[in-house]
Amino acid sequence: MNQQNTTQVLSPARHFSVLLSSTPRGARLARLLAVEWMWEHEVPYGVTEAATQVVAELAANAATHGRVAGRSFRLALVTHDSVLRIEVTDTRGENLPRLQPPIPPSDSGRGLLLVEALADRWGVGLGPVPRKTVWAELDLPRP
């Protein structure tokens, strides 16, 4: 009998990444896939609720402001060291997101304010050209 002792090293990080069309439909699918992934990986309910809104805002921004015809955006979710990191990458690196005070009668312009309120940290990374990645991190409760 051929017996082998093997040791499996489990990474403490869990990853999910998907390319989606830069359309409202792609942004909606990003939110739905994120919810499913967080449910499968037992992300606590309160974090899931906040993260779902963050994904929705970042994906909507990628589909609206980061849209380049024929190019997709990427959604990535990673849990590592008690942090859930959300990344949305698009191909409009020259169009950086920035917080703006909302204009009262306007229906838009509040997305990054929500991200800032819900995430523990967020920011933007550039490159490789022409890409940018908007990321947000939410702390997971320690067991």
Q: Approximately what portion of the residues adopt beta-strand conformation?
A: 25-35%
Helix content: 25-40%
Order of helices and strands: EHHEEHEE
Low-confidence stretches: 6-11
Overall outline: globular
Given the structure, what is the number of helices? 3
The number of strands is 5
Structural class: alpha+beta
> For the residues shown, what is the average pLDDT?
87
Within the largest sheet, what's the order of strands? 1-2-3-5-4
How far apart are the first and last residues' alpha carbons, in Å?
A: 42 Å
Q: What oligomeric state is this?
A: single chain
The rounded Rg comes to 17 Å
Which sheet architecture does the biggest sheet show?
Answer: 5 strands, antiparallel
Give a written overview of the molecule.
- This protein has 143 residues and is α+β, with helices and mostly antiparallel strands.
- Helices cover 31% and strands 27% of the residues.
- It is built from three helices and five strands.
- It has a five-stranded antiparallel β-sheet, with helices on one face.
- A hairpin with a 2-residue loop joins strand 2 (72-80) and strand 3 (83-90).
- Helix 1 (24-40) runs antiparallel to helix 2 (45-64) and helix 2 runs antiparallel to helix 3 (111-118).
- It is globular and about 40 Å long.
- It starts with 13 loop residues before the first strand and ends with a strand.
- Residues 6-11 have low confidence and may be disordered.
